[in-house]
Write a structure and sequence with these properties.
The protein has 13 helices and 16 strands. The chain has 378 residues and is α/β, with parallel strands linked by helices. It has two domains: 162 residues, Rossmann fold; 184 residues, Dihydrodipicolinate Reductase, domain 2 (2-Layer Sandwich). The strands form three sheets. Strands 1, 2, 3, 4, 5, 6 and 7 form a seven-stranded mixed β-sheet that branches. It has a seven-stranded mixed β-sheet with strand order 13-12-8-11-10-9-16. It has a two-stranded antiparallel ribbon with strand order 14-15. Strand 5, helix 4 and strand 6 form a beta-alpha-beta unit. The two termini are 23 Å apart. Bound molecules: nicotinamide-adenine-dinucleotide. Nicotinamide-adenine-dinucleotide (NAD) binds next to helix 1.
Length: 378
C-alpha cells in the first residue's frame, strides 16, 4: 500500500552540521578551512493522538520525544480535563474536538485510541481529511463495520496500521523469524495462554463497545496465530463462561474462554483467556514445529527478583504497559517509517479484519455450541 507523498515534509527542521570540505585551500601560515554549511532537511511527520487513556497516553508520550522523524502537534480527548492535562504536561496543543485535530494542516497522521466502537467514525474522518492513521486494536467492535473500514483503508492509499504491538516485541519477532525461516520445520500446533490481571475497565466491560473478550482481549492472540503460523484460520470451536464478575455476566460477555483453531495449513491451535490473574499478567505463546518449538513468555515473567528471609521470589510483570513498553515504541517507529518510505503498512486494516473475523466466529461458536467455519462470515 502506498500513500499520497505530497503531504509528508510539510515542515522541515534544519540541522547545520558542516563537514570539512575536501577542496578547501590550506595556507602555510594558518590552516584555513572553508566550510560549507550543509543544510540537511530532516522530514518530520506531524502527529495527533486522539483518546488519552491507557493506550493513547503511551503513544502520545512516545511521539512527544521518542521518534526523531515525528513530532506530536496536538492531542484530543472528549474529556476536557484529560485533554488539557495531557496538553499542558506534553507541551502541545490540546482539544476536545477530534475532528478539529484531524483538519489541521500541520498534522500528517493520527493515532486513534478511543473506545473501540468509535474507531470507525474517526478512521473514516482521518481518511476523508487525508491523514495516515494508526488505529488501536481491535479494528472495531463489529464485523460488518470492520469490513467497511478495511475496504476504505485499502482504497485510500494512506498508511493505516492496526495496533497489534506484540508483533514488534523482540521476542515475538524472533519467534516469527524462527517459524518463517523453516528452523521449526513444519508448523503443526499453536498455543496461547492469556490471563489478564483484572476485569476490563469501564467501557471495555460492555461487549457492545469493546466487542467482548474475543475482540478486546484475545484478538491479540488471533493476530499472533496468523502471524506466527503464516496461515489463515479456517474454523474455530469455542466455549465461554462468566465465572468471575457479575458485571461481565450481566452484560452478556465471558471472563473464562477457550477456543480450538483449525488453520488452512492443516495445523491446529488452542487459545485460552481469563480476566483474572492474581499473580500478574500471564502471557504465553508457543509454536510447535516438526523439528523444534519456540515459546514466548512463561508463568511469572519477571522484572524483579526479591530475595529475603522469606526466600527468593520473582515479581511477575503486572500489566501490558510494562511487558510491551519497547514494542509500542517500535510499533510507532514502523508506522512513521511506512509513511516516510511510502511503503505498505506492516499491520494493514485487512489484518485487523482477519483478527476480528476469528473473534466473531468464536462468539458465534459459543452462542450456538458448534464449530464455525470462517467462510460462513464472509
Ligand atoms: N494495544 C494494546 O495492547 C491496547 C491496550 C489498551 C487499550 N487498547 C485499545 O485502545 C483503545 C482505547 O482503550 P483504552 O484502554 O486506552 O481506553 P481508556 O478508557 O483508558 O481511554 C479512552 C479515552 O478516549 C476518550 N474518548 C472517548 N470518546 C471519545 C471521543 N469521541 N473523542 C475523543 N476522545 C474520546 C476518553 O475520554 C478516554 O480518555 C481501545 O480500542 C482498546 O482496545 C489497546
Amino acid at each position: 500500500m502506498g500513500h499520497e507523498g505530497g503531504r509528508v515534509g510539510a515542515r522541515t527542521t534544519i540541522s547545520q552540521n558542516p563537514p570539512m570540505s575536501a577542496t578547501a585551500p590550506v595556507s602555510s601560515m594558518a590552516t584555513v578551512i572553508y566550510i560549507r554549511a550543509l543544510s540537511t532537511a530532516v522530514r518530520q511527520l506531524g502527529i495527533c493522538v486522539i483518546g488519552l487513556g491507557r493506550a493513547g497516553t503511551i503513544h502520545a508520550e512516545i511521539f512527544r520525544s521518542g521518534i526523531e522523524q515525528a513530532r506530536l502537534m496536538c492531542v484530543a480527548d472528549q474529556n476536557k480535563q484529560v485533554a488539557k492535562e495531557a496538553g499542558v504536561r506534553l507541551r502541545v496543543d490540546w482539544s476536545t474536538e477530534p475532528e478539529d485535530a484531524l483538519q489541521r494542516e500541520d498534522v500528517d497522521a493520527a493515532v486513534i485510541a478511543v473506545p473501540t466502537n468509535l474507531h470507525a467514525q474517526l478512521l473514516l474522518t482521518a481518511i476523508r481529511t487525508r491523514k495516515h492513521a494508526m488505529v488501536e486494536k481491535p479494528l472495531t467492535a463489529s464485523l460488518d463495520e470492520g469490513k467497511r473500514m478495511a475496504a476504505k483503508a485499502r482504497s485510500s492509499g494512506l498508511v493505516v496500521q492496526v495496533g497489534y504491538m506484540r508483533r514488534f516485541d523482540k521476542h515475538y519477532m524472533e519467534a516469527r523469524e524462527k517459524a518463517a525461516s523453516g528452523y521449526l520445520g513444519k508448523l503443526i500446533l499453536y498455543r496461547a495462554i492469556a490471563h489478564d490481571p483484572g476485569p476490563p475497565p469501564g467501557w471495555a466491560a460492555d461487549p457492545r463497545l469493546s466487542g467482548g473478550i474475543f475482540y478486546d482481549m484475545l484478538s491479540h492472540d488471533f493476530d499472533m496465530a496468523r502471524h506466527l503460523m503464516d496461515s489463515e484460520v479456517s474454523a474455530v470451536h469455542a466455549v465461554g463462561a462468566s465465572m468471575l464478575y457479575e458485571e461481565v455476566r450481566r452484560r452478556g460477555d465471558y471472563d473464562v474462554v477457550s477456543a480450538l483453531l483449525t488453520f488452512k495449513s492443516g495445523a491446529y491451535g488452542y487459545v485460552e483467556g481469563t480476566r483474572k490473574s492474581t499473580y500478574g499478567y500471564d502471557l504465553r505463546t508457543e509454536v510447535v514445529g516438526s523439528e523444534a518449538s519456540v515459546v514466548v513468555g512463561g508463568m511469572g515473567d519477571a522484572l524483579l527478583t526479591l530475595a529475603d528471609k522469606g526466600g527468593v521470589r520473582r515479581k511477575g510483570l503486572h500489566w501490558f504497559t510494562e511487558r510491551f513498553r519497547e514494542a509500542f515504541l517500535e510499533e510507532d517507529r514502523r508506522f512513521v517509517r511506512s509513511i516516510l518510505n511510502n511503503s505498505a503498512s506492516e499491520v494493514p486494516a485487512l489484518d485487523g479484519l482477519r483478527a476480528i473475523e476469528i473473534a466473531e466466529a468464536c462468539k458465534v461458536s459459543v452462542r450456538e455450541g458448534r464449530q464455525v467455519e470462517l467462510r460462513e462470515l464472509r
